[in-house]
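Appendix B, record 7
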Amino acid sequence: MATFNARNNGMFILFSHPSPHMMKAIAFLQNAIFLRGFSASIHLAFMLLLSMIWVIKGCNMGGRGNSKERLKDSSFLYYKPALFSSLGLSLFHLVLCIFNYFVWYKYGWSDENLSIQLDLALRTLAWFTISAYLHSKFRYSEEEKFPIFLRIWWFLYFFMCSSFLVLDLVFYRKPGILPIHLWVLDFGSVLVGFFLCYVGLFGKKNKEEEACLLEERLLDGNILGGSFKKSKKDNVTPYANASLFSLLTFSWMSPLLKVGYRKTLDLDDVPQLADNDSVNGVFSVFRNNLQEDNSSRSSSGVGTLKLVNALLFSVWKELLWTALFSLLYTVSSYVGPYLIDAFVQYLSGHSEFENEGYVLVSTFFIAKLVECLSQRHWLFRLQQVGFRARAALVAMIYNKGLSLSSQSRQGHTSGEIINFITVDAERVGDFSWYLPDLWMFPVQVTLALLILYKNLGLASIAAFVATVVVMLMNVPLGKLQEKYQDKMMKSKDIRMKALSEILQNMRILKLQAWEMKFLSKIVELRKDETSWLKKFVYSSAMILSVFWGAPTFVSVVTFGACMLMGIPLESGKILSALATFRILQEPIYNLPDTISMVAQTKVSLDRISSFLRLEDLQPDVVERLPEGSSDVAVEISDGNFSWDLSSANPTLKDLNFRVLHGMRVAVCGTVGSGKSSLLSCILGEVPKISGTIKLCGSKAYVAQSPWIQSGKIEENILFGKEMDREKYESVLEACSLKKDLEILSFGDQTIIGERGINLSGGQKQRIQIARALYQDADIYLFDDPFSAVDAHTGTHLFKECLLGILGSKTVIYVTHQVEFLPSSDLILVMRDGRITQAGSYNDILSLGTDFMELVGAHEQALSALDSMETDPDSQASNIVEDGSCGTGSHKDSPHKDKWKREDQNGKKDEIIEQKGQLVQDEEREKGQVGLLVYWKYITMAYRGALVPLILLAQILFQGLQIGSNYWMAWAAPISKDTSAPVEGSVLILVYVALAIGSSICILVRSMLLAMAGYKTANLLFTKMHMCIFRAAMSFFDSTPSGRILNRASTDQSAVDVNIPPQIGAYGFYIIQLLGIIAVMSQVAWQVFIIFIPVLATCIWYEQYYIPTARELARLVGVCKAPIIQHLAESLSGSTTIRSFDQGSRFMDTNLCLIDGYSRPKFHSAAAMEWLCFRLDMLSSITFAFCLVFLISLPKGVIVPGIAGLAVTYGLNLNTAASRMIWNLCNLENKIISVERIFQYMDIPSEPPLVIETNRPDPNWPTEGEVDICELQVRYAPHMPLVLRGLTCTFPGGMKTGIVGRTGSGKSTLIQTLFRIVDPVGGQILIDGLDISTIGLHDLRSRLSIIPQDPTMFEGTVRSNLDPLEEYTDERIWEALDRCQLGDTVRRREGKLDSAVTENGENWSMGQRQLVCLGRVILKRSKVLVLDEATASVDTATDSLIQQTLRQQFSGCTVITIAHRITSVLNSDMVLLLDNGLIAEYDSPTKLLENKSSSFARLVAEYTVRSSSSFENLANL
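Structure tokens (predicted):
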């Protein structure tokens, strides 16, 4: 202070002979009071002037409400530099103001000091006002340049600051006269003032951009409010072209954060990835690396090591950057511990050189800045590596799934392959977080030991030994973690596989009332999984508690060794050691997680590599000839093929045939004879044992079981081809789809649900045929496509498609309908995998028994039809009902039926009010995650009783940690010359006691947290699955299974193992941050002066960041389900995809979906680093402020050891603050998994399974009479009516056939009978009991059905026939014999325990249908429904089944839906539906007597078709 005041004694050296007046004037002008007072005055005056202008402009702009919208896309040159310069000056003056306060607080106050303080304070306010004005007013103004008053002010400010600097250089240039911070003030002000003058001269509105913007608005036709969006090609992430400063500070994320803060983000708002991060670039590099690695090694297949090498070489540049940043981070993080001892010695008065304190503070601050920068970019690069690795693996798994051989496919179900993507690939991506630990840990330990050696000498050896002991403990613990993880993942695979199959077949489970049984199966599988999960989380908690105590253990060993070796413990050296241990504890803390993650990742890589090693389809099975090079389209010579190469009995044997271009070839045979396998063989799907297959031309395939993609009908038909409207319309006409499209609300733009759930079986099949026709291929393979459609539609399809559009094409078609055989040029008759007969229809008719058996059964059915037409059934005519809803029986007259239909048609427009797509976009919560979600989660287990105990244990742990460090800092001497307050033994004993206490607390906390997390995960799992299984069928119709699997897999995994530690970490860092603040404020309460505004800024940043981060996390969840769904669909339709050579297109779609998932994930990671970087900067400023305050205090005011303790904790301030916010944000991102599970816990449920107060009689139904009264049904509130007022009675104990065109409502009526769909009007009575008044299980368990889509589950023959385990083996064998499967099962090695693969794929479609028949024979219900029960079997087998049904269900009510007329001719009644209305209802004979009836015309058409030759059929 004295040196500063001495300026008055020597400041006139420039004037040799000044007059007294001149001396006084110059003295006054150069006096600090005048200079600073003048500066303060003009800043105050300008601030008042600016405020007045602001208010006036605000009033004048009252009518310009749209100005912001109008100009928000315009740009102003140097606007941002001006804004940030003004804001920077405000912060610059604020820091100097605070610093000045402490300087004068130390040396005392004077008038000059007060004037400087006032000047700095007013400067801070004035420049903050300028920056606020620029941001809120000028930003949207229409001015061409910066306002004139601002430019004048900038020039005036620059002139004033330059004058001050000149005076400083002239009068105060000698060292020590002027305080350093005033030099900094004047130098800094001149530099920024000069820049602002430049901005004032050249800053102006960007004319070119404004012109372009105006042009866009004019083109938009909305000059005032128009805005334009960038095209997707232009909307590439700013990261791709960001400047160095933008990259360093993550400012390239600001535009997206700004959008997210203003509105709810959608996927369109998220920029596209740069080429380097896009899966297109990553996957090609990865695949090339993998192929090169395979070709250079002698071993075959993809091993785990090869896979790892390929991944590493795909991202090696990013890994090098990561290594550089991690090294910088590690070195800079140890600067603080290294300098603490010197800092404590400086505070105690032992200074090595002049201004040592400022040098130390500067070094601390610079090291912190380097640490923050390197850490942020290190972590971001790591996540970049993870995104790329995950994307490459997902693409590789999908690519492999499309090329798997049939045998490999049987060993890995869809659920397992989905798990490879949702869990394993995700885990490999997450491992990038832990990857640097593998090389950082040795570096960190080495640096720590060097610092310890400098401070503690040979005692550092003890620290090294203790660290090695801790590391060696990881070996058995790591193996334990790997074992538990492996077992848990295998259990999860099994569960997901079962759940995937259940979701695909939920309809049949509900029809059979089996859903609760299968839910119990899932629960049992989950129990096995949770047994390993429990071990995993509790062992993790135990390991975590051990390692939380490890740094304390190392410090106890080290200090104990010092005592034994006689090495003096000084407070500075102790604090340096403690700071070193505190940094070392981070890698030690992370070590168990790293080892656990290594174990988990190894398991995942092993699983993925074993999948990639699976055998692909044999590429040489089919020899492809150049198009037009041969007259032969298909030729097989000496062919032997087998689905299972290890089987001694090949599937197809001794195949020899040739098909010329343009030929029609029919394939027929009994069930299981190998017809479908023959087509698969031509496609190259069946492994070849011997022989050759030659194929010339492109091919198209129509599968027996329709495969329909989720999406629009138009997209399914085009299937990747360009739209040709004329061709498209002709295909629709040929496939009889136009009328169906007219009925659908959106026509061919209707979105089809998963697996075509909102289409009838016939509609799905016709769309499949249309898809094949539109491809205009050379060779067409049809696998019994006509079984799923009615007779009229089948005739139309055969005539228009096979004989019409495909008249000149090569067509090979499998059929069970004998009437389609005469039209073929060649017939192949199959039995037991062999072609037993081959030739034209007439040639082979008399050559053998196989073909005669099929034709004979058909002719027998036709003769029955002839006798039906001539022999009226008098009994049936007496029981035709009269249209009332009673149990009486009377007859509808044709006039009454006609009147009723007209009345129903009249109701149509009134009923269909709202129409919409069945499949809607996935529901996504918007806005902040409600506190209710957090509250429900933390209170779910034990009603939240463990939460206060966990918090108490955590607080005690932190308190004991601080207490032990405080004890060491206080009780140890400052230096050798100072006596210690306590003896060395007491020092160590107390420290050990506190350390043991903290270890016990962390153990209790870890175990309680694991207990609560485990319990909560199980409760959420049970409740969610109960809600899913109890959901109405409409939920499964409109919800793709990928969405459900995503929650059951990814979200449940997060709840199992991620969220509990995340919540614990958030609580830990909050308490740790409070502890750091307490320690620092205990030393210097003045730290709150800067900490409070810094904390407020941190909270503002967090609030600014959270909306964007939250929506990005939700988008990640939403964008993952389409990948899963697309994979599941592709796997189920892989044969169709390969047959159309569409693999590359589907792969491209998969790559787009992967990028769609990576985009929000990438930007979410960048947003996190954007936030953490700013929080780190603020924390570093706070830390620097604390250091400056400590060196500014007079000596002796504070104990140096305690001050050093504050510095020790302050070193972790930025880490604790940023990690607290980081964990909060990450927790909010993770808690979205809980939010998504809660969504599925609120699914509307079906009616009760059992209503105890209204249970039917145990023998109900006794008669089986079904009364339908004014029945109206729609599938969803936004969809049209499907059944529109049906009224009829199905007499008890009699057989009723239901016929009608595809889509007429036949299957819907059956679903309503089983209450899969509840009517919106009317009712159904069974034996006089309204079925809507009883429980679903009481209803469905008393009815039997053979569904339209035959379903078998993975397991055994026994479990498929009797899943509820109610029947003996004798009853099961009896049922198998009656459904014609007994011999087939006996021939199999396992008999009743013969394996059934996923979806019964190792059984033919016809055999699956027969298994469904066996189920109903076992059940023996009074009411039996057959929904196309014999569609997939040949005519002979159909006759046997009909005979079996007549014998087994002679006294039962049998309701039959069939497209084969012969299947309903022996019914007592026939109901003909048309567009949801009753067209005709009477006995078959009565209907046939009326030759003008629709049924009579249908039968006549079938008779003509069945008995006609090719020429007659062509003329139909």
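Remarks on this record: The first strand starts at residue 622 and ends at 625. The radius of gyration is 41 Å.
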